[in-house]
């Protein structure tokens, strides 16, 4: 059980890593808002978690929906930008359809950016907040941007850049903003992976509940700071 109960919002919380993050945050005594594109799935996921969890319909590409959610729930203490898509595989930068790149950036970069614009200013005013952007090893320049998925890589590398910029903007405010590389996780996105969503969620939840002297503007793999 957490020392202090916080309100956490998890995007893409209906399944995969997002649902596991919502589960662990809830188990640790936090109030959890499970946001998902399909409102019924969001509500049914929240019901499975139990009391102090609620569901909210949210497509992160929809600016009006983000504004409406913010107006409905007010501020949150913890934002986990988990919603993501991987639409490209076995592609090269010169061959890929840019429409697909655009759709990927809309969710993976601009979705998280919209959420930060809506929810981070309240955190700064309140003097406490945690933002975790769920990134990927494919975003890592240190690892050489691995994987034949240029749209996904660029979207997550951009998400990492946004993480640094948000951390700089919120420095000293009590808000910590970090990106995490969860590794390969067995979800609909990566059904062949070994790591379970709950194993990956453990580290995301730690980043989402960092102590006040925790890092901001870093890239984490498990609990270790890694190169961008
Ligand atoms: N699995 C891995 O190995 C792995 C590795 C590195 C990073 N990640 C990242 O981890 C995060 C979670 O992925 P996952 O593995 O759990 O994949 P997943 O099972 O495919 O889940 C993706 C989640 O994102 C939601 N989503 C997609 N587009 C959305 C939108 N426009 N608005 C709101 N929600 C949207 C999906 O909702 P619907 O159910 O409505 O489609 C779903 O809840 C993603 O950011 C992914 O890039 C995953």
How many structurally independent domains? 1
CATH architecture call: 3-Layer(aba) Sandwich
Helical proportion?
40-55%
Low-confidence spans: none
Most strands sheet: 8 strands, mixed
Q: In percent, how much strand structure appears in the residues?
A: 15-25%
Radius of gyration: 16 Å
Q: Would you give an account of this structure?
A:
By secondary structure, this protein is α/β, with parallel strands linked by helices. The chain has one domain (7-82, 110-142, 159-226): Rossmann fold (3-Layer(aba) Sandwich), CATH 3.40.50. The chain is 42% helix and 17% strand. The protein is built from six helices and eight strands. It has an eight-stranded mixed beta sheet, with helices on both faces. Helix 1 packs across helix 6, helix 3 (63-73) runs parallel beside helix 4 and helix 4 (98-126) packs parallel to helix 5. The longest helix has 29 residues, at 98-126. The chain is globular. The mean pLDDT is 97. The site of NADP nicotinamide-adenine-dinucleotide phosphate has 31 residues, from helix 1 and helix 4.
């Amino acid at each position: 059980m957490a020392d202090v109960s916080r309100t956490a919002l998890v995007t893409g919380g209906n399944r995969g890593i997002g649902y596991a993050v919502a589960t662990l945050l809830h188990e640790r005594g936090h109030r959890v808002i499970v946001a998902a594109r399909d409102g019924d799935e969001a509500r049914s996921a929240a019901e499975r978690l139990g009391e102090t969890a609620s569901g909210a319909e949210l497509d992160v590409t929809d600016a009006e929906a983000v504004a409406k959610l913010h107006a409905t729930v007010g501020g949150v203490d913890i934002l986990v930008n988990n919603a993501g898509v991987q639409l490209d595989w076995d592609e090269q930068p010169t061959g890929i359809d840019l429409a697909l790149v655009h759709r990927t950036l809309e969710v993976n970069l601009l979705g998280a950016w919209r959420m930060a614009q809506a929810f981070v200013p309240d955190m700064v005013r309140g003097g406490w907040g945690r933002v975790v952007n769920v990134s990927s090893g494919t975003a890592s320049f240190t690892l050489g941007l691995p994987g034949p998925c240029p749209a996904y890589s660029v979207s997550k590398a951009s998400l990492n850049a946004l993480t640094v910029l948000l951390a700089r903007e919120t420095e000293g405010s009590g808000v910590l903003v970090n990106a995490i590389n969860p590794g390969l996780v067995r979800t609909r996105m990566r059904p062949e992976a070994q790591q379970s969503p709950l194993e990956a969620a453990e580290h995301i939840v730690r980043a989402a509940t960092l102590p006040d002297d925790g890092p901001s503007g870093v890239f984490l793999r498990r609990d270790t700071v890694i190169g961008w």
